[in-house]
Design goal:
The complex is a heterotrimer. By secondary structure, chain B is mainly α. Chain B contains 14 helices and no strands. In chain C, helix 11 (about 220-235) crosses helix 18. Chain C starts with a helix and ends in a 5-residue tail after the last helix. Classes of the chains: A mainly alpha, B mainly alpha, C alpha/beta. Chain C: Pfam families: SBP_bac_1.
């Protein structure tokens, strides 16, 4: 990553900063416009609403920080659902990444019928939410389910997977991990992009397999690992569909995720201002977590093509 | 020996992931009597293939299919074009406000849908877009943060020296995007296309909120209509689910080999 | 590069402009419903009839099934609700609905309000005003599988039976190997329907002024009801529903896994299709106290800002007219005259539904008494679930629910 200031590059550097930056802004303009059209308005609207008492079908009243105060100080549901979500994320995120990475590695080395295997692992991600409930309820059902049927064949009286407050969260985590296909494909794509020459050179120099993994694969995969890390955190905090469809937050609120808490306030209690406040709290938590990960990542993510220092693309 | 181990593991694991699909298919063709047996019926005594036709004809699924296809095709094109342009912009340029803007881009992924929904509805209502497919298509032309982030990470694994060389040959920024990075990005673009296709194809909330009339409904909305407040039509859900899975699966099977051939070297040398 | 950008921008603009801008010559009335499948088909047929009678009017039926509430919240929140909609949750929506009392009084000769039972009209009233017209309803009953009763040699339920009778019968059906039970209790019942058991045992969720739950929701009579269901689960007289899986009572009953099943009209079509002989019994009594039933009413409401209020009112009126009511075969006729004409009030299958309607107009559903009921109800639902998991201990769980709910009653 040396900055070899060759003659033409120097000439280009002298071009006006305006034109250089304009090109950059032109490239990102679709997103900027989209942000202004479709995101900024709703964002400001929901921020304003979080300071209002708004029963959706009625008058709005300004209440200052009341929604936030009630939520943090008086509402046990808030802390309970937040704690459940944190627990979920703490297990789901690492498992999702490690599992994706391991299977991606296996697929990377598999040459026979690789298309079939890739499709098979991606299959669950293709099935839509409505059908997922039917499938999982068939698997987990205490009396009529496949899982307990299998267990009964080896003489085990299976538990009530979704009916036991201690087990339900485990069942939800398994069901969520089942949709790991997307993450796995991202990592597989990253693996495929690592130049083979690196491994060949390492093998020639007698570098053992584990060291190649540690010093070639992981660093080269860094940018993709970071991506899956951050998007998994976001996904974990927004976890709603599976729990909403499978357990509706039960039993005894043991799978009552923070996203469901927001959802209920909005669509069950019609308390849109309160729901907006909850959304902003969640937004801030996820943002802070992501920024911490980003900062920490600079220690282990290596960008082959990072544009640092001078601008070389004008 | 190692290969044998690898393939046995793969076969075993993939069976876990295929089994539910198998079950969905079997549920679709089972008779009502077989549906609620215990122990579960793994191989139905009678095969009712007409269940597919019955489910399909219970609602105007032909219309739904047309609508879904329009949404998916047009929004996927938009997503591929816009996200790759924006990702290239973030990955390869240095400009004032780049890092804050990138953080902002990431932040937009973190806003829960519940609170964006009503203001978006108001906006689309003002534009006269409610009960049209536009709210489901147009935003895709303005780059989605998830895909921009993904493509940006991918571009950043490509050595800058490649850009340099092209520029020395007189290529401008767009040429570099078009002739070098798009081909290099192909595996990641296939991913983006696949993911976006799936999201749009399976999207339930968007169509539910922005569409009113059955003549505008998409396939997922039709599927959800089998789950009423009190009665659930399990056979029809299973049948339509199977039908709904096939186009994206077929497409994915065709597309996935491009993910495979993603070695940087080959395209660069060409 | 600039040239390419122009091309992209140009094609984008062309695409944006080429929308479906179709001029609408006819008047369009938007009608939102939560029904799907057969019930939806019936409503579409009624809407068609209405269109025939009003040339130039198009009724746009908007079915949202399971997503009904979410859609309605978004539409109301954004200020663009449908003109006419199905409604049951009046306390949440009434400020945006059109009061109908004046219209009902004006058109009384045509509507004949006396033909519609008062108990049904009560469910559409908030703070003394009427916001909806009932178009269909259901009460709760017990379906029983006649074939299973015959095979087990158990005497069929009789009018005036009690929960003790039901339990004694249920115990005789338990077959562990084939996973057969006599009855099913629901760990996650709709609290709206569940209140009927408290009424039947002489209590209610909340005081009539909507201010007190302590001593109501957690009264001994309420705990007795919950403990009884818990006990039925423990003694295996009943399967427990919705404790961990989505298998519904309908499914088990249709599959011959339970002999008796408490439900409502919405289950009947499916049971008919299952093809075995079944009977309908009234809800059992607690001792000699009369049984009460929850009222499930599909009422039609008009948005306050409906663009064509007159047309909307015509449509609502038509939906509760004898002609339309007679077309509804998936729920029960709200008009006594139609029910009698069809002979339903003496038909053994339908009679229990109508009999209990007569004793069910004295209580008011809790949600009509307090605006925050939705939040209280979730704590209550958790207490019911906890009791079913513990298979008893109701009093403690209900006390806890009352404690957690106090802040919503301020």
């Amino acid at each position: 990553m040396t900055i070899a200031a060759t003659a033409p590059a120097v000439v280009q550097k002298r071009r006006s900063a305006f034109s250089r930056h304009l090109t950059a802004y032109l490239f990102i303009s679709p997103w900027i416009l989209g942000f202004l059209f479709f995101t900024l308005g709703p964002l400001l609207f929901s921020l304003t609403m979080s300071f209002h008492d708004w029963p959706v079908v009625g008058e709005r009243t300004f209440v200052g920080f009341d929604n936030y105060r009630t939520m943090l100080l008086e509402d046990p549901q808030f802390w309970e659902s937040l704690w459940i979500t944190v627990k979920f994320a703490a297990i789901y995120v690492p498992f999702n990444i490690v599992m994706s990475f391991l299977i991606a590695l296996m697929l990377h080395h598999a040459t026979f019928a690789s298309g079939f295997f890739r499709t098979a692992f991606y299959l669950p991600s293709v099935i839509s939410g409505v059908a997922l409930v039917t499938i999982w309820s068939w698997i987990y059902s205490r009396e009529y389910g496949l899982l307990n049927f299998m267990l009964s064949l080896v003489g085990v009286d299976g538990p009530n997977w979704l009916g036991d407050p201690g087990l339900a969260i485990v069942a939800i985590i398994i069901a969520s991990l089942w949709g790991f296909g997307g993450t796995m494909l991202i990592l597989l794509t990253g693996l495929k992009a690592i130049p083979k020459e690196l491994y060949e050179a390492a093998t020639v120099s007698g570098v053992p397999g584990w060291a190649q993994m540690l010093f070639i694969t992981l660093p080269m995969l860094g940018p993709m690992l970071l991506f899956t890390f951050i998007t998994s955190i976001i996904a974990a905090f927004q976890q709603l569909t599976i729990a909403l469809l499978m357990t509706k937050g039960g039993p005894l609120g043991s799978t009552y995720f923070f996203a469901m808490y927001i959802y209920d306030n909005a669509f069950k209690y019609f308390d849109m201002g309160y729901a907006a406040a909850g959304s902003w709290v969640m937004f801030l938590i996820v943002l802070v977590l992501s920024l911490l990960v980003m900062r920490w990542s600079s220690a282990w993510v290596y960008y082959e093509g990072e544009v640092k220092g001078g601008d070389r693309n004008a | 020996m190692r290969k044998t181990l690898l393939y046995s593991a793969l076969v075993l694991l993939s069976a876990l992931f295929i089994a539910p699909f198998y079950w969905t298919f079997m549920t679709a063709i089972k008779s009502q009597a077989d549906l609620y047996q215990f122990p579960p019926v793994f191989w139905p005594s009678e095969w009712h293939f007409e269940n597919f036709a019955i489910a399909w004809n219970k609602q105007p699924f032909g219309t739904y299919l047309t609508n879904s296809l329009i949404v998916v095709v047009f929004s996927t094109i938009g997503q591929l074009v816009s996200s790759s342009l924006v990702a290239y912009g973030f990955a390869r340029f240095r400009f004032p406000g780049r890092d804050p803007l990138f953080i902002l881009l990431l932040a937009t992924m973190m806003i829960p849908w519940d609170v964006k929904m009503i203001p978006l509805y108001m906006e689309f209502n003002l534009l006269g877009w409610i009960n049209t497919l536009k709210p489901l298509i147009v935003p895709a032309y303005f780059a989605d943060a998830f895909f921009v982030f993904l493509l940006r990470q991918y571009i950043m694994t490509v050595p800058v020296e490649i850009d340099e060389a092209a520029r020395m040959d007189g290529a401008n920024a767009f040429d570099i995007y078009w002739r070098i990075h798009l081909p290099l990005m192909m595996p990641a673009l296939v991913l983006v296309g696949t993911f976006h296709f799936m999201n749009a194809w399976n999207d339930y909330l968007g169509p539910l909120i922005f569409l009113n009339d059955q003549s505008m409904y998409t396939l997922t909305l039709g599927l959800s209509m089998f789950k009423g407040l009190h009665e659930v039509d399990v056979t029809s859900i299973a049948a339509i689910t199977v039908v709904l899975c096939l186009p994206p699966l077929a497409l994915f099977f065709l597309a996935q080999r491009y993910i495979m051939d993603g070695a940087v070297g080959s395209s660069v040398k060409g | 590069m600039r040239k390419n950008t122009t091309v992209i921008a140009g094609s984008l603009a062309a695409f944006l402009l080429a929308g479906s801008v179709s001029a609408r010559a006819e008047e369009v009335l938007r009608f939102a419903t939560w029904d799907s499948d057969e019930s939806l088909a019936i409503q579409q047929a009624i809407a068609k009839k209405f269109e025939e009678k009003h040339p130039g009017v198009k009724v746009q039926v908007e079915p949202y099934a399971d997503g009904y509430d979410q859609k309605l919240v978004a539409a109301f929140g954004a200020g663009s609700p449908p003109d006419v909609m199905y409604m049951w949750n009046f306390p949440q929506y009434y400020t945006s609905l059109m009061p109908l009392d004046d219209l009902i009084a004006r058109d009384a000769a045509e509507i004949k309000p006396d033909d519609i039972p008062q108990g049904l009209m009560n469910t559409t009233r908030v703070e003394g005003k009427t916001y909806g017209m009932p178009s269909g309803f259901t009460t709760q009953v017990v379906f029983y599988n006649k074939d299973m009763f015959k095979a087990a040699g158990v005497e069929e339920p009789k009018e005036g039976w009690t929960w003790d009778d039901l339990r004694a019968k249920a115990a005789k059906f338990r077959d562990k190997d084939n996973k057969v039970y006599g009855f099913a209790v629901d760990a996650k019942p709709d609290p709206y329907d569940f209140e009927q058991f408290l009424w039947s045992n002489g209590t209610k969720y909340i005081s009539d002024d909507g201010k007190t739950i302590d001593g109501y929701m957690n009264s001994d009579a309420a705990a007795e009801v919950l403990d009884m269901f818990g006990d039925m689960a423990r003694k295996e007289e009943a399967a427990t529903l919705h404790l961990g899986d989505d298998t519904s009572g309908d499914t088990l009953f249709k599959g011959g896994k339970i002999a008796m099943f408490q439900s409502a009209m919405w289950s009947k079509a499916g049971i008919d299709a299952a093809g075995f002989g079944y009977g309908v019994a009234p809800l059992p009594k607690f001792g000699d106290k009369p049984a009460h039933s929850a009222l499930g009413v599909s009422a039609m409401s008009i948005a306050k800002d409906a663009k064509q209020p007159d047309l909307a009112w015509e449509f609502v009126k038509f939906f509760s007219s004898p002609e339309a009511v007679a077309m509804r075969t998936n729920d029960l006729p709200v008009r006594t005259s139609v029910a009698e004409e069809k002979g339903m009030t003496s038909d053994p299958v339908y009679k229990p539904f109508f009999d209990i309607l007569a004793t069910s107009d004295i209580e008011t559903h809790a949600f009509l008494k307090n605006r925050n009921w939705g939040k209280v109800q979730d704590n209550l639902a958790r207490a019911i679930e906890a009791t079913m998991i513990d298979q008893g201990n109701a009093k403690a769980h209900l006390d806890d629910a009352v404690k957690r709910s106090q802040r919503f009653l301020k």
